[in-house]
Write a structure and sequence with these properties.
This protein is α+β, with helices and mostly antiparallel strands and 114 residues long. The protein has 2 domains: 41 residues; 60 residues, Calcium-transporting ATPase, cytoplasmic transduction domain A, CATH 2.70.150.10. The strands form 2 sheets. Strands 2-1-3 form a 3-stranded antiparallel β-sheet, with no helix packed on it. A hairpin with a 2-residue loop joins strand 1 and strand 2. The termini are far apart. The relative contact order is 0.08.
Amino acid sequence: MIVNEWVESIVIFGVVVVSAIVGFLQEAKTLKTLEILTRTMHVKSRIIREGKTREIFADELVPGDIVLLRSGDRVPADLRLLRVHDLRIDESALTGKSIPVDKTIDEIVSTALI
């Protein structure tokens, strides 16, 4: 507009406005989809808390809960294993590995830099 190129200025402004509207609509749709998925993906877990077995939602887990896993269960959180028997976990969503990973109660040696 500064150099009196009105047609180009109007076209560029129109493209920016249309792009902003499309981006806003896509983001709103994505947020709505995520909200629906979050509501449907509530993972229930069987736990031992205060010596009693209970079934709770995974977002209610607290440190100290003992999670009981059965074949086909989803792992509800980052867990320390106390006992296992032929445990294999599908970590493909986290690591991209397509083969289930064997889990043991062996101590994990951290390779992180301190």
